[in-house]
Design a protein that fits this description.
flat; single chain; alpha+beta
Length: 1009
């Protein structure tokens, strides 16, 4: 008794905790198999009694014996789930009173009745020992409900929450239908779960079989007629498809059908399992091997890796797994089915896994490959290793078809890529899964299917095939077009659908050789193909060149030349794909015109467009050594007809051409006949005129492109290192910049313009877009030079003001010679006070003929003073005039003027004696003009004490605060009926004033009404 009690208690507390529904569902599945009927399980709770009813074989005498004997199962069929005779013990975890009602008889187990029987028979037991409740059985007359063959009724203990119990059972229902194929329906209270298994294809023979169909997509689903039980409602029928003698017909479960030999899907056959529950429908593809059943979840009709799971044997164990498919295995387990039995042969479970992969559509097969990860258990580690070994060593990986070149020469220009459609039920597999892309290698029709899922390509090809992964290669992101070419060069090549970047990790697990871009380029060395083949090859490679690293790896690609040679490396060649005429280029290696493709330029080939050829360093070498070579002159001028001047380097001007006297001169020292530039240059400029015959032969556009002048030439240097571009006064400009320029673009030869022709020269600059754009660059050389050195009517452009700019109105002349808006950066810049501008302004202020407004005078003085205060101007370096401009606008001798430093003195000193600027910089202005400050020459005393007040409490103070700036309204406020100040010094006497600022105290005369 003690042994049985301990054994039953251990199983309830440990091995079979939380497994009531699982164990009863296993018994129901076994009963369905034994009875040859679809398994149904119904769970309900009535008056705190758990009722679990099922269909199938009823309770037998041997079953009763097994229930009353621990670890003695009455099941002798190896296909049945329960084998150890202990699973029923799980009912004790929720109740002590259990009834088993069956159509062949019913029994009851009861802890209370057991205790009474022990007492009645004089058998005592220790107080700390609870007798086993499942050893003594009493017959009862109760029968199962209609429609059920057996019902287990458990009287729930008081500590069991019925609602929580049903909730947990609902959570298990889907897993149980997944694990126990003999069960077709589970109803828990008012919630129903059903499963349907559909045959997707003919049974697939294991790898190595003569009838294997590698590369197959699915054949059509078998449509299954359902045979509902008399007590079921329409639409709740349970059915499973199985092959018939006709190879794919339909089988319906009918009463009395013997299905013991067909529990679950047939071996080596792919099926679809559909489980429908209250929360929706879920789908799996499943495949059965000799020792296991594998299930792959479907999302939107496509397979996805399963989430981390546990080993199911067949129900859930505690062995954690991280496999991409759910595993339901026939494997030795410990009696509680939670752990593997020591010595269990897990490697046998993996046998046939490659057949599962081979049964899937080719593009979905990598879903079954485990990704690198830490194993979740010892069993997981062993299974992952076994599965990876199984996948690595068996043929299932789809590879591209190849062609026998000895029988038929491949013409890539006529290659077409046809989709191959095999018969697949779109509702079962999704519309996006019914087509397998196959590349046909010529324009003839695709051959007919030789076997479901196998195809023949027209012409001398062999069937699309599968390969052992370790013998295959993969080129990442392979396209069908590239596959049609590479399959003949590389050996077994993984199909494009499985060559994506996301698949590389799994292919690495399989030890598939990764074909790099560099290795692919090496394969082309010495390859004999016609130029058209090469152009097609480059076209298929182009999408793969996405970054500099890939371009570097393709750097060893072979390139056919026009002279028949095959050279290595696109960087060593040039292209002629943009030329409209044949040009004898001696400084470049030219690609065969039938093989040219933009990819070669991306890989470093110098495109043989006119621009690229005219910027080739080889041409520069030729010009530096022999600038007058007739062939070079002819080639350059032919190419230059297709190029604009701003695309070409300045050194093309080295090319020597005849002038109108027959003398050879560099192109950049020649002008075209009638050039506008000639009209604005000085008479002794160094330019000549190109010969008329040369203009007639090559045209003005070609000559202008290489540097023959028409208007002002522009010098361009994308990476200047210093002021070494032969520009006038370039060093002064360069040294005045805050930092070295990143790029130099400048108009040259400005110093050759005649001073009397600058209005016309400016219009010439504005007429050309290239030079016009440079006039907007405030810090550029062109605007800098024009600002300082260009003169109109003897006045530097930097001393002219924009007509809309009134800053120095009346002092500096407005600019009207050309468009002032475009030339704004060339004109005076009020915010930049240079010594030259300062002297110009001081002279203008001292000029009686100028009539600036007092505001202009004050603002100009303020700018000059601010420049002195900031250190931008040094008065010692300036040549000052002897006269100054006063606030009244008059020009007076400097010794009669004073600088206003306190605004209140402006009320008592005549404007003809005051020089006004910004009070903040009054001292700087006095220093600049060498004038005294008013406060140093005149002192003032406020007469009368007045009335002391504050700005906040005095109404007049509030009003005045709104009129005056804050600095004047922060000190004390004194109000006077009559405000007078007494002056001493340069001016003396008593003066009445409206207000006065005396060292921060403001005196105000009160207005009289």
């Amino acid at each position: 008794m003690r042994e049985d009690s301990a054994g039953e208690a251990d199983l309830v507390a440990a091995g079979y905790r939380d497994r009531v529904l699982t164990e009863l569902a296993q018994n129901a599945a076994d009963a369905a198999v034994q009875g040859g009927v679809p398994g149904e399980l119904t769970v309900r709770i009535v008056d705190r009694r758990l009722h679990v009813a099922n269909t199938g074989a009823p309770l037998s005498v041997s079953g009763v014996h097994a229930l009353t004997a621990l670890r003695a199962s009455g099941k002798d069929d190896g296909a049945q789930v329960g084998r150890f005779g202990v699973g029923f013990t799980a009912v004790r975890s929720v109740g002590d009173e259990v009834e088993i009602r069956s159509t062949t008889g019913s029994i009851r187990f009861s802890l209370t009745a057991t205790l009474n029987a022990l007492h009645d028979n004089g058998i005592t037991h220790p107080e700390d020992l609870t007798p086993p409740a499942l050893r003594l059985a009493w017959p009862i007359p109760t029968t199962p409900p209609a429609g059920a063959d057996t019902e287990v009724v458990i009287h729930l203990r008081d500590d069991i929450d019925p609602t929580a119990l049903l909730t947990s059972m609902r959570a298990e229902a889907t897993d149980l239908l997944l694990e126990l194929p003999a069960l077709r329906r589970i109803r828990i209270a008012d919630r129903e779960f059903t499963s349907v298994t559909t045959l997707l294809d003919h049974p697939a023979p294991p790898h190595g079989s003569a009838n294997a169909t590698p590369g197959a997509d699915f054949a059509a689903e078998a449509h299954v007629d359902t045979a509902p039980r008399p007590d079921t409602e329409p639409g709740n029928e349970i059915s499973i498809a199985a092959p018939t003698s006709e190879g794919g017909a339909e089988i319906a479960h009918a009463p009395g059908l013997d299905t013991k030999a067909h529990v679950g899907p047939p071996v080596s056959t792919l099926t679809k399992l559909t489980i429908t529950g209250p929360d929706g429908t879920q789908h799996w593809w499943q495949y059965r091997t000799a020792r296991a059943r594998w299930l792959l979840p479907l999302t939107n009709g496509r397979p996805v890796p399963a989430a981390p799971d546990v080993l199911r044997a067949p129900t859930r164990s505690d062995e954690e797994l991280s496999l991409p498919a759910i595993l339901v295995a026939d494997i030795a387990m410990q009696p509680d089915r939670r752990r593997l039995l020591p010595g269990a042969r897990l490697h046998e479970v993996a046998s046939g896994y490659a057949d599962f992969a081979r049964a899937l559509p080719p593009k979905d097969r990598l879903v079954l490959v485990p990704t690198p990860a830490f194993a979740r258990s010892e069993a997981d580690a062993l299974l992952r290793e076994a599965i990876i070994t199984e996948l690595r060593t068996n043929p299932w990986l789809p590879v591209c078809p190849t062609r026998d070149r000895s029988d038929h020469e491949f013409d890539p220009n006529q290659a077409e890529f046809h989709p191959l459609t095999v018969g697949v039920d779109q509702d079962a597999f999704g519309k996006d899964m019914v087509t397998a892309e196959v590349s046909a290698l010529d324009n003839s029709s695709v051959g007919t299917a030789q076997h479901p899922g196998t195809f023949e390509l027209a012409g001398p090809t062999r069937s699309a095939s599968i390969e052992i992964p370790t013998r295959a290669s993969v080129f990442p992101d392979l396209t069908p077009e590239l596959a049609a070419i590479l399959a003949d060069l590389t050996g077994p090549l993984v199909i494009p659908e499985l060559s994506t970047r996301s698949a590389q990790e799994k292919l690495t697990v399989l030890d598939v050789h990764r074909l790099s871009s560099a290795a692919l380029a090496d394969l082309t060395t010495g390859l004999e193909r016609d130029p058209h083949w090469w152009r097609t090859f480059y076209s298929t490679l182009e999408p793969f060149v996405t970054d500099s690293r890939t371009a570097e790896e393709f750097g060893a690609l072979a390139v056919p030349l026009a002279d028949g040679r095959l050279v290595t490396g696109p960087r060593t060649v040039v292209l002629d794909d943009q030329l409209t005429v044949a040009v004898p280029v001696h400084w470049a290696r030219l690609v065969h015109p039938d093989a040219t493709h933009p990819l070669l330029a991306r890989l470093g080939a110098r495109s043989a467009s006119a621009t690229d050829l005219l910027t080739d360093p080889g041409l520069r070498d030729l010009l530096e050594h022999d600038p007058a070579d007739p062939d070079t002159v002819t080639a350059v001028l032919h190419l230059a007809q297709f190029v604009s001047a701003d695309e070409l380097p300045d050194w093309l001007g080295l090319l020597e051409l005849p002038d109108d006297t027959g003398e050879l001169r560099p192109a950049d020292e020649l002008l075209l006949p009638g050039a506008p530039l000639a009209e604005v240059l000085v008479d002794d400029s160094p330019f000549g005129t190109v010969a008329e015959a040369t203009v007639a032969e090559f045209g003005e556009q070609a000559l202008r492109a290489i540097g023959v002048g028409w208007d002002f030439a522009v010098v361009t240097d994308p990476d200047p290192l210093g002021p070494d571009h032969d520009l006038d006064d370039e060093s002064a400009w360069w040294n005045g910049l805050p930092e070295d320029p990143r790029e130099l673009v400048a108009v040259r030869d400005l110093d050759l313009v005649d001073d009397t022709r600058w209005p016309q020269a400016l219009r010439t600059l504005l007429a050309e877009p290239r030079s016009r754009a440079l006039l907007a660059d405030r810090d550029g050389y062109t605007t800098w030079w024009l600002h300082r050195h260009a003169h109109i009517d003897g006045i530097s452009l930097g001393r002219y003001r924009h007509p809309d700019d009134t800053e120095f109105a009346g002092l500096l002349p407005p600019f009207t010679a050309a468009d002032p808006d475009v030339l704004r950066q060339v004109l005076v810049r009020p915010d930049v006070m240079t010594p030259e501008l300062a002297e110009e302004l001081l002279d203008a202020l001292a000029d009686p003929s100028k009539t600036p407004t007092p505001e202009t005078v004050s603002r100009t003085h303020a700018r000059l003073a601010a420049a002195v205060a900031s250190g931008a101007l040094d008065p010692r370096e300036l040549d000052l005039p002897e006269q100054v401009r006063t606030l009244a606008g008059t020009v007076v001798d400097a010794e009669t003027a004073m600088v206003l430093d306190r605004p209140c003195f402006g009320l008592v000193i005549p404007a003809e004696r005051l020089v006004v600027g910004d009070p903040e910089h009054a001292e700087a202005l006095a220093t600049l003009l060498d004038l005294p400050l008013v406060s140093d020459q005149v002192s003032a005393e406020v007469l009368g004490a007045g009335r002391q007040s504050t700005w906040a409490t005095e109404p007049l103070g509030v009003v005045l605060r709104q009129l005056w700036s804050p600095p004047l309204t922060t000190g004390a406020l004194v109000l006077h009926e009559v405000l007078e100040v007494f002056l001493r010094g340069e001016f003396s006497g008593t003066v009445r004033v409206p207000w006065w600022d005396a060292d921060g105290t403001v005196h105000v005369q009160v207005p009289r009404g």
